[in-house]
Amino acid sequence: MDTPQYPLLSRTLFPDLPAYPERMIQFGEGNFLRAFTAWQVQQMNKQGRFQGNIVMIKPQGSPVSEHYAKQDHLYTVLINGIADQQVINEHEIIHSVSRLISPYTEYEQFLALAEQDSLEFITSNTTEAGIAYKPEDRLTDAPQQSFPGKLTALLYRRYQLGKAGFTIIPCELIDRNGEKLREIVLRYAAEWDLGDGFIQWLEQENTFCCSLVDRIVPGYPQQQAEQLAQELGYQDHLMVTAEPYLLWVIEGPAWLPERLPLTEAGLYVIFTEDLRPYREQKVHLLNGPHTAMAALGLLAGLTTVEDVMNDEDLSVFVKELMEQEIVPMLDLPRAGLLSYAEAVRERFMNPFIRHELASISLNSIAKFQTRLLPVLLRYQRERGELPKRITLAFAALLVGYRGDRLARKDSPEVLTLFDQAWSQPVEAIPVLLRETKLWGQDLSSVPELARTLEQYVRKLDAFGARATLQWLGGGSLCDD
Ligand SMILES: NC(=O)c1ccc[n+]([C@@H]2O[C@H](COP(=O)([O-])OP(=O)(O)OC[C@H]3O[C@@H](n4cnc5c(N)ncnc54)[C@H](O)[C@@H]3O)[C@@H](O)[C@H]2O)c1
Ligand SMILES: O=P(O)(O)OC[C@@H](O)[C@@H](O)[C@H](O)[C@H](O)CO
After folding, report:
1. Which of 99, 354, 395 minimizes the C-alpha distance to 224?
2. 170 CA → ligand 1 middle, Å
3. Which member of 106, 146, 312, 331 lies 3.0 to 4.6 Å from 134 by CB, making a disulfide possible if both were Cys?
4. CA distance 379 to 115
5. 3-state secondary structure of 199
6. Is residue 428 lining ligand 2, measured as CB closer than 6 Å?
């Protein structure tokens, strides 16, 4: 929203903000990283513990938003929510980003980062799709299309200059993110014939860490933009809202906490030798319910996570989904899982942030595959029956992806598969379940799955999401 009566946030307005040498390269300029890594770097800087800034790299070719340069790479993070029973409504101008480079228009500037000795860390968040191998990438491209391709080119230049390697900590929400990134970089190194010396340098001088991130960051506060400009006294096109909670689990070497003193700065960062249990818990008990509530909530006509948590039927659904279907399928102590589940529900109830179900529903098929499907399959194997709530969320997703009720946001490939299947409604569900490109496996032989989904889809179509939820919880429907 434009609020031209207020000056634009820039260093002219705040000339005393400090600037530090660049110590971190960050692939990704999205909302999440702006309220996560850059915010944390600023907390360390404020305490004199890091004294380093971030260079952001635009991982994709879409035009760079003019706002970064116009705002001197400053932006506001608004922290809104409840922590330790205290209401928190804080804002902070983040000045830990020094510049944003697009390799698509400034490829030489991008590669020149290899010359900078002050740079030690590389972080990234390029969505679940970003850590991907693209066979067409070449060292001679300017730039390579994939994020790992660009990273390999940068690392190769660094190696050629005989300089020290980096500590690389990706934040993408995929399993073993650091290992996957390392594998792809090594693959490019071999395929591009960059030599044994480079491969040895990659392995010995660089550290790829796996990491898990957790902070709800709904992004730009569209609806309060005007009021905020009035309160802050400036307009900021890059401001981003986040909850107070933050967790970063990093699986890395013992020397890392000292070099990256996040914990010392009082941030909830866990350095561990094994992040798997943290990942299982978060992906299934926080992201899983998000994906399920988005599928059902949108069909029920709701808009935000808060709407869901204030809805009698849906909030019960979310609680039972967590406690009765997800918790029993996780290999972690039950008491800890239940208290995590409760804390997550409190975060979902945050009355100060507006988390749109539509934004959570982006690319829901891939999300269902990682967040809920493993739980559904394990439940079916161990109990000999389907978990009814996850299955209902699955049915709601299939209805949503039919395209006649809701706007769908997914890759063209996924949408085409759904359009083809739904063009023959009678056969649609078995056809979709067989499609390995959607689920990573053929689901047609999962006992009772096709039949149950067909039943739930019929009920969702005939009676709507709310009545179907009530029926699932023991109520009756006219065709019972
Ligand atoms: N927003 C949150 O609450 C939150 C919390 C935890 C994790 N995350 C994760 O962060 C990711 C980004 O969220 P966001 O809110 O910053 O979104 P965003 O749309 O603001 O930013 C997305 C970023 O990813 C890049 N990107 C997108 N597709 C890419 C691709 N195929 N290859 C390379 N780069 C690509 C974009 O250029 C941009 O830098 C999400 O996918 C999610 O997994 C988000
Ligand atoms: O960011 P996405 O689109 O991958 O998923 C939506 C939410 O589940 C997610 O952003 C959570 O809010 C986040 O993972 C909390 O740490």
Report:
1. 354
2. 12
3. 146
4. 53
5. helix
6. no
Our CA angle for 438, 442, 447, nearest 5°, is: 120
Atom of ligand 2 nearest to the CA of 127: 4
Please tell me the number of the ligand nearest to residue 127's CA: 1
Three-state secondary structure readout of 23-43? EEEEECCCHHHHHCHHHHHHH
CB 83 within 8 A of CB 304: no
For residue 479, the CA-to-ligand 1 centroid distance in Å is: 43
CA distance 318 to 300: 14
In this structure, the residues whose C-beta lies within 6 A of any atom of ligand 1 are 28-32, 59-60, 125-130, 147, 173, 213, 215-217, 219
d(CA 455, CA 439): 20
Cβ of 305 less than 6 Å from ligand 2: no
User: Which atom of ligand 2 is the closest one to the Cα of 355?
Assistant: 12
Please tell me the distance between residue 220's alpha carbon and the centre of ligand 1 in angstroms: 14
Number of C-beta neighbours around residue 173 at 10 A: 21
Position of tokens 């030599």?
195
Please give the distance, rounded to the nearest whole angstrom, from the Cα atom of residue 130 to the centre of ligand 1: 9
pTM value is 0.91
Q: What is the pLDDT of residues 400-416, one digit of tens each?
A: 999 988 889 888 999 99
15 CA to centre of own chain: 34
> Tell me: the pLDDT tens digits for 132-180?
999 999 999 999 999 999 999 999 999 999 999 999 999 999 899 999 9
The span from the CA of 114 to the CA of 112, in Å, is: 5
Q: For residues 68 and 30, give the distance between their C-alpha atoms in angstroms, rounded to a whole number.
A: 12
| Token couple for 421 | 């299947």
**Residue 82 CB burial class (10 angstroms; 0-12, 13-18, ≥19):** middle
ipTM: 0.96
Q: How far away, in angstroms, is 470 Cα from ligand 1 center?
A: 35
DSSP for 384-423 reads SS--HHHHHHHHHHHHHTTSSSS---S-HHHHHHHHHHHT
Quote the strand ranges of 116-260, DSSP E: 121-124, 167-170, 207-208, 210-214, 240-242, 247-251
